[in-house]
Amino acid sequence: MIKELKKALLIGGLVLAEGTYTGGNFNSNSNEKDILENIKKTSETYESSKDILENIKKTSETYESSRLEEKISEGFYLTPDSLNKCIKQAYSEVQKWPKEFDKRLYRLMLKQESEYNVYAKNKFSGASGLGQIMPSTYKGYRDSTNMEEEIFHPVKNLGVSLEVLADISIFCKKYHPDWENLTLENKRKIILTCYNAGPGKVRDKAKWDLQSKKLNKEQREYADIILETYHNPKIQVKLD
Fold this sequence. Notes:
With 240 residues, the chain is an all-alpha fold.
């Protein structure tokens, strides 16, 4: 429709120069006032159509936003099989994995983060999706024009989660003064705490002390909760 209107305006411009367009021939005897009136109507119709399309776009965006809010409100929880498939696909796309983690630990971390709810969202921080990725973090790893919805895509969300964990592992190895002498358990605790609180905060404010008062209660307890679950033989996690 817009193309047709633009064509009409173009024809109108030609009319002013040569006369009325009549399917190939111009009739210079046409009334110039009528010609200008037709052009005006065509222009008004075009502008009106632009407004209609803009309103349709806004309505569509509002609808999609309300649908997303509805999904967040209802939640969508992955089965173990579905979670496994999403993790495998995410890894195949990013090819990153923290070497201190195994599959069980990663899945239990996700359980602590989101209970495997694809549409989990922290109403205070905005952390979203399976791996509870902050919007600012997602933007740092992905150039997305539709981040508000994309951050909830299970594979994309997990891909960023794995990249963040892998980068934290590298960060800890580089900046922790005694990293090579730590036990695997302690390395895992530090990486988990960095994931929850942010590596900069753990290094610069807490000075690598995971019980520092510079960390809040949740941040101090986060790693212990996950690792306690990890070592509990009664907790079954389906792996493939």
